[in-house]
Design brief:
The protein is an alpha/beta fold. The protein is 48% helix and 15% strand. Strands 2-1-3-4-5 form a five-stranded parallel beta sheet, with helices on both faces.
């Protein structure tokens, strides 16, 4: 979930940067955005800013005594108030009391940069997370663990802003913004349009290719099954079964890529809702990945709750999600380590979840959402242990999970950051059997 961090001035920037680094530690699904860090070099800043404002679910306005009436801060606060829900635009005050807020920002319920008010802020964000929100006890534990880090960062911020330039007149600022916008010449716009068209065309070509491969792969799978049923020698049987498993992997991968790309383009995915024994499906895929993986050093462990229910969902989409998560774990797991595939009942309402846990290079808090982006891989691990990868697996898994009405998140072990667990929260309305 996007949290937009608005700032203006050197001290306000330090507050925003501290929150950006800190929030994903408390709530791993939160993805803060701060223009000074997250806006790509060479990007059209006005378009990027508008996009982030539209995607934000929460806005935090970092306010200090010297910046609360700056035109830019007031502009972003106003834009956020028109997009996000009431109560989700939060002025965050350093070295100020709420009664000292002036101007348009006085309309918002402010929070002081102390322990109690900061917990109110994270509670507001947690409520906005919906089905992936932490329990009240879990939020308290996480906040208590991470608050000292933020407190230390806030205490290190200077108490004065002597280095800030004097405020510029609003007219001068608006004229500069208008001038920058006009610098987008026809040539630049045309170049951007060509690049966007080329990227879109490549994506459609990839979607077409993976879709067209499905029928031949299914035919190969059927032929192998037919040959095995007709009777083969004991020497040939393992080879046929291994080939069957490889083809099943390709079918799952191709279906996942095709469906995820279609979903991103806004096309409807023909999901078939049927009662699925998720436990049997997961066990079958775990056994298959153990067979097809070239990582003979890895141990794949499988565990499920005895009363894990059957679910009503799309079998193919589920298979692609599980395969993508397992394949990702195989790529990046430490040598001679264990990958755990578990089906458990979580929380007081015993909601079913599926998780894949492995041990590998730590994923920094700032990377937790980036690794779910298309063609993105963690900067800490540019290559897998055995496979290079292109950065599609986790993106596909999340796209399909969301298409089925669920959510996929990354959980990390605070005591051992090398342990990463990808958790699928199934749609609570999918139906249990």
């Amino acid at each position: 979930m996007r949290v937009f961090l608005s700032w203006s001035g050197s001290r306000s920037r330090l507050i925003a940067q501290a929150l950006r680094d800190w929030l994903p530690g408390v709530m791993q699904v939160v993805q803060p955005w701060m223009s000074a860090i997250d806006m790509q070099m060479g990007a059209r800043w006005n378009a990027d800013l508008a996009k982030e404002l539209e995607q934000a679910k929460i806005g935090i306005i970092c306010i200090t005594p010297e910046n609360q009436t700056t035109a830019w801060l007031v502009f972003e606060a106003g834009a956020l108030s028109k997009i996000v829900d009431a109560g989700c635009v939060i002025p965050y005050l350093l070295n100020m009391r709420p009664t000292e807020v002036e101007g348009p920002l006085v309309q918002f319920q402010a929070a002081v940069a102390n322990r109690d008010d900061t917990f109110r802020v994270v509670s507001t964000i947690n409520r906005a997370l919906g089905t992936v929100a932490l329990s009240e006890e879990g939020l308290v534990r996480s906040f208590q663990k991470w608050w000292p880090d933020l407190e230390r960062s806030l205490m290190e911020i200077p108490t004065t802003a002597a280095s800030d330039p004097p405020p510029r007149p609003e007219r001068e600022l608006l004229e500069e913004i208008l001038g920058l916008a006009r610098e987008n010449t026809r040539e630049q716009i045309e170049r951007a349009a060509v690049a966007e068209y080329t990227a879109s065309r490549r994506q459609r070509d990839m979607m077409t290719l993976t879709h067209q491969l499905q029928a031949p792969l299914v035919a190969v799978a059927n032929a192998l099954s037919f040959a095995k049923d007709r009777g083969v020698t004991n020497d040939a049987l393992p080879l046929i079964e291994h080939s069957e498993a490889l083809v099943e992997d390709l079918i799952a991968m191709g279906y996942g890529i095709t469906s995820a790309l279609a979903s991103e383009e806004g096309r409807s995915i023909a999901l078939m809702a049927n009662t699925v024994d998720v436990a049997d499906e997961a066990f079958s895929i775990a056994r298959r990945v153990q067979r097809t993986s070239a990582r003979n050093d890895l141990r794949i462990m499988y565990r499920k709750s005895p009363d894990f229910p059957q679910l009503v969902l799309d079998r193919q989409a589920l298979a692609s999600v599980i395969y993508s998560l397992m394949h990702n774990a195989v790529k990046y797991a430490d040598s001679d380590s264990e990958i755990a595939l578990e089906l458990l009942l979580s929380g007081p309402d015993h909601r079913p979840i599926l998780s894949v846990r492995s041990v590998g290079e730590p994923i920094p808090p700032t990377e937790r959402e980036r690794i779910f982006e298309k063609f993105a891989r963690g900067r800490q691990v540019e290559r897998g242990r055995l496979y290079a990868g292109v950065g599609l697996g986790l993106w596909v898994a999340r796209q399909l999970t969301r298409a089925m009405g669920g959510e996929l998140i990354l959980e990390q072990n605070s005591e051992d950051p090398r342990v990463a667990t990808f958790v699928v929260h199934f749609n609570s309305e999918a139906g249990l059997r």
